[in-house]
Amino acid sequence: MRSKTRPQVPCVLHQYSRDTPRQLAPCWGRPATFQRWCRPQVIHEASTTRGPTAHHRPTERPRRQDRGQPPTEFDPGVDRSRAIHSVVRRVRPGPKAKGLEAGLPREVADLFPTSFWDSELGEIPQGWRVSAIGEQATAILGGTPARAEPAFWGGTIPWINSGKANDFRVMEPTEYITELGMASSATKLLPRRTTIIAITGATLGQVSMTEIATCANQSVVGVLGSATMPSEYLYCWVKQNIGRLIARQTGGAQQHINKNDVCDLPLLLPPRPLLDAFHNAASPLFDRIANALTEASSIASLLDALLPRLLSGTLSLRDARSPS
Fold it and tell me: Are 242 and 207 in contact (CB under 8 A)?
């Protein structure tokens, strides 16, 4: 008796992974999903290869009657990638092992934890803990001196509004107030490297850092660093988790958050040696950013002063290059 052999089905994995990557994008790492997508293409290739007289025609895909039954040929029924992930997750190396594998120095790799534990923020490295901004730093709400008092304005103390939170760094104030104006209002002087957060209006949720000592209006909350809590770490954490603050917004016509929301924002605290190491590494980078912005501002001011004179002809390049 002549045995029936199955048609030789050409391999379409390479073809379809090359020609239609967007259709296959949801299938990577999911064997069952790929087989379900690819089966109509395989059957089509087989039918066109065998021709109209082929003994094997595309048949309806067999369906499983119950999840307890064994998987069929084209429907394994088990997402093997999930099973693999669950095993890998149980035996994955800790951050310390990853640090050693990456070739980090021993003194740096020793700062990494060896395991994780659960917290309100999810899994965090063992030895770290969750606190709050208000417990580890000082939050200050700004204020505005009365506009009706001319004696409060035009002084020497820098003052900014919430629009400055749109800037990458606050390098110059919006206006200047007097000492009497600062004493007569709720505004306070924020030191350099204060993280500022806009808490209302169109700028709600904007985060910046001051590179000058300045006061702010009532739409700004400043978060001050300290000797035990580096301002660079606070800025990076607030910037990364600003979505948690925005989720607390309330109000009708104008959404806003308040100072208490900022103080209640969870803050992940690494061990002290790791926090000091971060400060030592990040502080020079923040200094370089400030220096670059100061230099860019000086060049822009020089360009604004020289360009009109160059265009009008009152100053030539030869005059600009000649020594005074």
Answer: yes
- Residue 307's contacts (CB-CB under 8 Å, 6 or more residues apart) are none
CA proximity to 173, closest of 228, 217, 222? 217
- Residue type, position 235, single letter: Y
Nearest to 217 by CA among 139, 148, 161: 161
pLDDT in tens, 26-58: 554 555 555 555 555 444 444 444 444 444 454
Question: Mapping DSSP to helix (H, G, I), strand (E, B) and coil, where does residue 137 land?
Answer: coil
More confident residue, 95 or 214: 214
288-to-42, 215, 294, 295 alpha-carbon distances in Å: 58, 24, 10, 10
109-153 pLDDT per residue, tens = 777 777 888 999 999 988 899 999 999 999 999 999 999 999 999
- Find out whether 75 and 39 touch, Cβ atoms under 8 Å: no
Q: Which of 195, 189, 158, 155 is nearest to 174 (CA)?
A: 158
CA–CA distances in Å: residue 304 to residues 66, 175, 276, 301, 310: 76, 21, 42, 5, 10
